[in-house]
Amino acid sequence: MQTPDSQTGYRIQTQKVAGAGTSMCTTFRHNILRLFGTRYATAAALALALTPASEPTVAMTAAKAPLEGAGTYAELAVRRGAEADDKGKLHGGELVPVASMTLPATHTVGDALFKYEGPGWESELVAYRLYFDHRAAIDIFGKTRTQLVLPQVGVDGSDYHTLADWGMDILKVGQSLGLGGIGAWSEGGLTGVNVFDSAALQIHNDVDASGVDLQYTGWQTPAGARDLTMQLRIAPGSRLTHVRAAADQPLPGWATGVVRHGLQPLTYRSADSEWGYLATWGMQSLADDQLGMAIFFRNVDLAEIRNDANNHLVQLKGASAVEYYFAGVWRAEGIDSEQDFVGYLQQQVARLNQSTSGREE
User: Residue 31: is its pLDDT beyond 50?
Assistant: First the structure.
């Protein structure tokens, strides 16, 4: 059965996908509703409610390309009809956008199952991707022009690690959280979302924002196993991704951060401001030029700013849920120096302070 999708313009077709259990889908729907309310959960809940729990709805036809110079876009493209070699890497087939997916237990890093290792989301100014595997880190696609580009990124025969007309992958993530990845904090240090029982995601495209909803079940933390729900959103005309995350039981501490590249971090924590930031600026892009990265947090939620071997970290207080923003700035008009970058950061703090909802306007 095919029905028009008024938000994305795609044609949506129901298709059987192996590996999605009833408990996973039910937990995903309930946690999205509990944490984010009906405004943000309607699309995810409706998609799951209209589909048998073991057969999530997926977009089986090619995605409609977003308009250049406007809006936002998110996607997950999965390789179908491919053959695996003796090392498990997939060859051939085609990359098909999907609306939702449960991570296959057989997936390994580098097997070419996903177009660029996981979901991506973007505004006209910047794009991000999340490694949909045991790394769970967040990477940046920098842009050379103001446009939406994800449909052309990572297609067979291309290399997003080299500069193209649209831009390139600009961040060396290594063993870090990347930019804005999430973890648990304890006396033993940072525990990323690296060991879990299962994971699922839902792609979100709406007129006012695009992004990804994620559900990890059985995430192993020092405080015990947790079910983690995450929502990531980007709005048109913004570089900020808004992150909301919640666990089914409180954690003693949370953490997010920016990968360490040998730069002195920039911090802002003022008693007169609801929001603060941790940021870095300098020669740290894969294009060997200036890149700025920042985490924006509520000062009341902050426990400490600290470092570990791989990250500049924002340690957040223990709670069931956390909220923060992150942003990457690369080759942006008018942001050519650390002074310019700090000016941009202060503008974003002012906007967040002025917003009663805490969302960038």
Answer: no
